[in-house]
User: What shape does this take?
Amino acid sequence: MSLINFEEEIFKLKKELNAVILAHYYQFSEIQDIADFVGDSLELSKKAAATDADVIVFAGVHFMAETAKILSPNKQVLLPDLEAGCSLAEGCPADAFKLFKEQHPDHIIITYINSTAEVKALSDIICTSSSAEKIINRLPQNQKIIFAPDRNLGKYLIKKTGRDMLLWQGSCIVHETFNERKIIELKAQHPAAKLIAHPECEESLLSEADFIGSTSGLLKYVCQSSDKEFIVATEVGIIHQMEKYCPDKLFIPAPPNDASCSCNECPYMKLNTMEKLYLCMKNRSPEIIIDEKLRLQALVPIQRMMEMSG
Ligand code: 13P
Ligand code: SF4
Assistant: This one.
């Protein structure tokens, strides 16, 4: 057992470094509890752009910390584990994406923030799950659109906006794991429960959902709803905030395909631990470094997202 009180040490280091800790809802509960701000991808980017701290400690995955660095180049951005990736970003390599783009020169490219800086640099507008619909609706009706890299979010947006979009065929390993048959069984056991889902889930599951939204959208929905029970089809980490805000309500994690695995936990998000958070602050490493030319190219579509989602 470690003799270090990570929480105490992290608070000391935060003062010493003039650091801010930003955490995504999928982080372990103890990390969410010591963070200065917990949010979804859009909210976290906005915080990263607005903070006056010298150091941003990003308790999330690589593309999130990279976006923070793109927006705040003069700040040091630390990520507790550099291996904290994302299956969506990994499933969309920049060289293949460049070829895809070249095959469709008359299309505008809207790319989900879950992508590498190289892919962002090839894109026209970045979006998050909470800003995508608004951004698409602002484009002229006759504008041809490529949406990448999440095909499930893409299909959902096609339905919502009525726009025909060409989709990159990527997916999230966590949101594709939910088992609809088991969810239907759960619904039978909890007839009053509402099924709420992240739009990265498959179309067939989304068609059963009572509400679909980004992580912060789901949190807001359960807080405002008069219902008392919810089956939650997204990464289980979000349930920590739901239980904190609504202690009188019941949150049931949607079951994965394989009952013996914890596939409804994001293996990348869960690479970050309190120990790694403490160590990255102590060592001021691992740090996110981005080539300046690439940063400036990736910044343009991120700024468009900020303007269009504002
Ligand atoms: P949100 O923007 O909804 O927080 O989504 C981030 C993510 O990675 C979902 O898997
Ligand atoms: Fe990526 Fe899925 Fe993990 Fe979100 S939950 S970070 S989309 S792998």
Summary: Residues 180-253 form a domain with the Rossmann fold fold (CATH 3.40.50.10800). The two ends are 47 Å apart (CA to CA).
